[in-house]
Amino acid sequence: MEHWLRKRAHLSPNELAIETMDEQWTFKQLYEKAVSFARKIAFLKGKHVAILSENSLDIIVAFWGCTMLESKIIFLNTKLRERELIQQCETADVEAVIGQSDKVQPLNLALPTFTFEDIESLPILDVEISVEMDLSSICSMMFTSGTTGTAKAVTQTYENHWSSAIASSLNLGLESHDKWLISLPIFHISGLSTVIKSAIYGMPIFLMPSFDATKINQAIQTRGVTHISVVSTTCQRLLENLGDNQYPDTFRCMLLGGGPAPKSLLEEAAEKAIPIIQTYGMTETCSQISTLAMKDALQKIGSAGKALFTASLEIRHGDKKLETNQIGEIVVKGPMVTSGYYDAEKANKESFLSNWFYTGDMGYVDEDGFLYVVDRRSDLIISGGENIYPAEIEDVLLSLEGVKEAGVTGIENTEWGEVPVAFLVTEKQWSEEALIDYCAQHLARYKIPKKFYFCESLPRNATNKLQRHLLKTKLTNK
């Protein structure tokens, strides 16, 4: 297939590709900058190249430039410590690292490193660059978000990315005025998938360096933004910042992923007529694999919809498919699903069975075929033989006045095996007795947290997903 950005620059040379608060680039300009970048680093052709950068025009140019060299691009999380970055570079056989100067220069890596400024000063070499893409080749590697422990390098082929973009468009549709705002990191799949959609669709993106509720709401109100991807935390902040104002009718979709969303949040959005569309996906599926259609948004609040057109989804216990409304592990397959983790034979054997990918997430499908995500399997608390899903307890706690964040995990207990405990970030002080009384009105007794801890913040990754496995570390510091 012809290189996506090359083809787009030919089809829509003067159409807007990227907009920031200060700049605008057409697809022709973006293509020319990527070609120039590729020819400056032609010595990295075909190599494993890591990119370490926050959201910027530079990271987008670097990504497209590396694809023109058929290099495998490994995205590194800028929040990681040097030891973690070294480990990930070793895992993915990285041969060079490029990125923004304040992230790359302090590192003591035993690898060639280049800042974007270094590359800018290099000469443009007269070399051939790829004008086509081999869809079966690895385009990128991206480490799992680490919400359950050690991250693994997910391989993502060009076909995976292409299939994800096409399946998404078949569900959400395409309109001539669409503009997708990116505030989540490009080094995570939500951000990268939108960059790729932009070239395939011919759709401009509004790029922000990071999440800023005020600036995002301003962009939706005044800059023609029609789509944005969010997680529960960032969605809540946008709603709070919006206040009594409303989004314009041109705003089509707030795509909500990153785990189960509190019912209270969805109800608040519905009251404000905000078009929240819940979705389910992950690094291993190159973003969405199940998404709620617009027409079902209000009738199926809390659902992540149905599998996209080219995807399949089942609920299983082991290799047995479960019946309607039975909670089990979500398993998926489709052309957007990774073929495996890089150099991780054991993990691949554990995660794949007859072309089905076992996600590690728990959920159920209702009588109409709609998916409801319950929790991560690894977050499941088993207390006295009863299954307890932390998200259900968190949902109840978040409905309390003044509770800004809630995280629940299990701790060992000699009598029950495990019991739930809760960590709260609040604006209002609640007594433990009041919290227990409130939970007792909404939860079975065995689900009520046995202890409540008040914190200034909860551990989250770069996309603001709650890292429940790190909550236990707060106990050791008390």
TrEMBL record:
Enzyme's top EC category: ligase
Residue span, AMP-dependent synthetase/ligase domain: 6-342
Transmembrane domains' residue ranges: none
Protein EC: 6.2.1.26
Function: Converts 2-succinylbenzoate (OSB) to 2-succinylbenzoyl-CoA (OSB-CoA).
Similarity-based family: Belongs to the ATP-dependent AMP-binding enzyme family. MenE subfamily.
Name this protein carries in UniProt: 2-succinylbenzoate--CoA ligase
Gene that encodes the chain: menE
